From TrEMBL:
Catalytic activity, as annotated: an n-alkanal + NADP(+) = an alk-2-enal + NADPH + H(+); octanal + NADP(+) = (2E)-octenal + NADPH + H(+); 4-hydroxynonanal + NADP(+) = (E)-4-hydroxynon-2-enal + NADPH + H(+); dodecanal + NADP(+) = (2E)-dodecenal + NADPH + H(+)
Protein name: Prostaglandin reductase 1
Top-level taxonomic group: Eukaryota
EC class name: oxidoreductase
Length: 332
């Protein structure tokens, strides 16, 4: 069947992932059994969750992740050669998987790149959609705050909130990203968290959110997030998507949640953790609505593109060093 390549974990990450923690290996592509399909990766993705979930991997395991794959061979009656599908096959060039375990790539508006299947019209976009509309029970009168707002999830959160009529405040890690949020994505307010440090944040939020915050879409965690809770209104809702600020931190240095718990009591704040898969029964309906927004120009996207399988590590590191604006994708 030929050879494929995969990125494997050599040893568990300790702090920021190092290149020596991973290596590329060749493998023999296995023969197909009945119901299997052979995929060639077309687009790969890196996402922050991979850092946390890598803790379940053993040395020699393939790094986890989703691919957009082209069907090269099929022994599954429901999957045709030439189709594009989504599957969690990891950081690989080729994969043999049961056809029933894949999702058909959604229909995309004309002129939209296939990579949007794992970005704005994929897991990150659906995370924003379901997290905001379902987990946070968004209302048109809400003031919404989202951190990591220029990333794959945060940028969609802000735009959906604007589509629904909300006021949107975002934080990002550079003046360029702040400009992108306000001038291209339509955020009402945005600030550079490297300039507006936690000691300056209360004064900044008093200015940007004089009427308080109703919805907090949490992607970052840390000290600044604890401060945001103090500005939330009665019966506010917080959707906990991630805490990227401490994904690379040793366990004994992670912030304690007790700093903001008292706000949740006297303000009756609802904190909802969620996984995008909690809502996958509504996936097709959500993608149809989001694709229409893309087609109408209401939902914009930007990609941070890497080329070639060997660039996976560099793409992964872009997530944790603030080099990406929008979704990081790797084209093969």
């Amino acid at each position: 069947m030929g050879k494929g390549k995969k990125w494997v974990l050599v040893k568990q990450f300790d702090g920021l992932p190092k290149r020596t923690d991973l290596e590329i290996q060749e493998f023999d592509i296995p023969e197909l059994k009945d119901g299997d399909i052979l995929l060639q990766s077309v687009v790969l993705t890196v996402d922050p969750y991979m850092r946390g979930w890598s803790r379940i991997l053993k040395s020699g395991d393939t790094m986890i992740g989703e691919i957009v794959g082209k069907v090269i061979e099929s022994k599954d009656a429901k999957t045709k050669v030439g189709e594009h599908v989504l599957v969690r096959a990891g950081w690989v060039t080729h994969a043999v998987v049961p056809g029933k375990n894949t999702l058909k790539a959604p229909d995309l508006p004309e002129g939209v790149p296939l990579s949007l299947c794992i970005g704005t019209l994929g897991m990150p976009g659906l995370t924003a959609y379901f997290g905001l509309l379902n987990a946070c029970d968004l209302k048109p009168t809400d003031t919404v705050y989202v951190n990591a707002a220029a990333g794959a999830v945060g940028s969609v959160v802000g735009q959906i909130a604007k589509i629904k009529g909300c006021k949107v405040i975002g934080s990002a890690g550079s003046d360029e990203k702040v400009k992108y949020l306000k001038e291209e994505l339509g955020f009402d307010e945005a600030y550079n968290y490297k300039v507006v440090t936690p000691d300056k944040l209360p004064a900044e939020l008093k200015k940007l959110a004089p009427n308080g915050i109703d919805v907090f879409f949490e992607n970052v965690g840390g000290e600044a997030s604890s401060i945001v809770y103090s500005f939330m209104n009665k019966h506010g809702r917080a959707g906990i998507c991630g805490t990227i600020s401490n994904y690379n931190s040793p366990g004994n240095t992670k912030p304690k949640v007790t700093e903001f718990v008292h706000h949740t009591i006297y303000k009756s704040i609802r904190i909802q953790g969620f996984l995008v898969t909690d809502f996958y029964a509504k996936r097709d309906e959500a993608l149809k609505e989001m694709a229409q927004w893309v087609k109408e120009g209401k939902l914009k996207y930007r990609e941070c593109k890497f080329e070639g399988f060997e660039s996976m590590y560099d793409a992964f590191m872009a997530l944790f060093t603030g080099k990406n604006t929008g979704k990081v994708v790797i084209n093969l």
